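Chapter review: from sequence to fold.
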Amino acid sequence: MLDHIKIEDILFLDIETVPQCPDFQRIDETTQYLWEQKAAPMCKDGQTPGTVYERAGIYAEFGKIVCISVGFVYDLADRQLAFRLKSCFSDDEPELLRNFSEVINLFRKQHFNMMLCAHNGKEFDFPYIARRMLINGIALPAVLDSAGKKPWEVSFLDTMELWRFGDYKNYTSLKLLTHIFGIPSPKDDLDGSQVASVYWQDKDLPRIVRYCEKDVLAIAQLLLRYKGMKMISPDNVNSMTKM
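The token string follows.
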């Protein structure tokens, strides 16, 4: 599986997103109105747009990115595989996105056939990043600009889509796949539903960064298993992130 793709050309990534404000009452009136329209189908059993505002982070129009973690596989001298991680994180989303763009462009200079890989990336991570870049007036890196490209020209890999094998009604979480493949779970501290409260209430962005990096490593380990390759030893994982 995926024999034609070199593992060294893949940049694995994951993003963490939160609502743009700590709570519904702090957003401007126009955005409140627009969120009410968006949230109406979500409101059940007495819920209101305000009580479901914690879900706003999953929508690029109402959320923001607080962390993008990336990682890549490389060979050590003894032919073991190693993994290097780096995270772009900030309360200032434009700064974060500019830093991420620099990372992407640098990796592409070294890997002309680069691909991006995420879990559910085609439906979430990749379009979310692209939309937030446009909203913040930041030029899209070529690898993220899929407009007008033919399907085989788009440089995206999605570990969830690959697991479907054409079964488009199937959704499989990263937590489940890591479990069945014997990969250490990245969800041992947080899960996605807790990120907003950890960010806005606990103000613990470093904890979110650590969680995001665990996801990136898990995605890489999963793709290695798809390709029938050995997983990366924990001793060969290093992070360039300073927190």
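Two observations follow directly from the output. The first strand starts at residue 10 and ends at 19. The first helix runs from residue 29 to 39.
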